[in-house]
Amino acid sequence: MANLTISLEESIIKMARVRAIQEGTSVSAKVREFLAEYALGNDRQSAAAQAFIEAARRSQANREGARWTRADAHERPYPAVADSAASASASSNASSNASSTTPSATPDPAGASGDAA
């Protein structure tokens, strides 16, 4: 086996040693493992991404060939946060004002003229 010298910050080396001890291995073993996977192109993240892309291509989820626009992706069925906060404030003010200054929304059985039928 050949030797390799690398330069790292002391704090990184200390944290790596602690973690390696917790995992029951050594920093050298972890570097060796990483470099072997890297050199062979076997990194797990790339493999997972490739598997996802292959699964998406095999998927029958969009058989009709639907296309979406950027506006479709950002369409919201609910009001924006600022709008809902403003309307909540307005409804709170309206309900407190309604109880003290405005007539009830319940219809008057006597009618607008005050005569009972």
Question: What do these coordinates show?
Answer:
- With about 120 residues, the chain is mainly α.
- About 55% of the residues lie in helices and about 0% in strands.
- The N and C termini lie far apart (about 105 Å).
- It is built from 5 helices and no strands.
- The protein has helices at about 10-20, 25-40, 45-60, 70-75, 80-100.
Instruction: Count the beta strands.
Output: 0
Report the end-to-end length measured between terminal Cα atoms.
Answer: 106 Å
Number of helices: 5
Averaging pLDDT over every residue, what do you get?
77
Helix and strand arrangement:
Layout: H1 10-22, H2 27-40, H3 44-58, H4 70-74, H5 81-100
What's the short story on this structure?
With 117 residues, the chain is mainly alpha-helical.
